[in-house]
């Protein structure tokens, strides 16, 4: 299965996430990531440029970076928003449970 570069949404997500940003945070060169993931350096170059990526390569690279595959598609802002909303839900649930206990 290929994620096609003609799918603008996939291309945009890959560029937003910037596998290269995650790679650089880990202080890895393209060559080092390629070696760790078991793919060619040209595969890393193509992916970072928003070209086609196979699901198999995506899984290998995410594993080599120590992240979930979905993390490669989320920006830090997206992750912060998700974390914030999750915290709000937990807080709301906690308040609901306290209210339910106090009514008894």
Description:
With 104 residues, the chain is mainly alpha-helical. The chain has 2 domains: 2-73, Orthogonal Bundle (434 Repressor (Amino-terminal Domain)); 75-104. The protein has helices at residues 8-17, 19-25, 30-37, 41-48, 55-65, 76-103; strands at residues 2-3, 53-54. Mean pLDDT is 75; it is low at 1-5 and 12-16.
Distance between the termini: 55 Å
CATH class of the largest domain: Mainly Alpha
- The portion of residues forming beta strands comes to under 5%
Lateral arrangement of strands in the main beta sheet: 1-2
Structural class assignment: mainly alpha
- Please indicate the count of domains: 2
Unreliable stretches (pLDDT < 50, length at least 5) are 1-5, 12-16
Q: Summarize the amount of helix as a percent range.
A: 55-70%
Instruction: Give me the CATH fold name of the largest domain.
Output: 434 Repressor (Amino-terminal Domain)
DSSP helix count? 6
- How would you name the oligomeric state of the polypeptide chains in this document? single chain
- Order of H and E elements: EHHHHEHH
Task: Name the shape in a single word.
Answer: rod-shaped
Number of strand segments: 2
CATH superfamily of the largest domain: lambda repressor-like DNA-binding domains
Based on the coordinates given, report the CATH architecture of the largest domain: Orthogonal Bundle
Radius of gyration computed on alpha carbons: 19 Å
Largest sheet: 2 strands, antiparallel
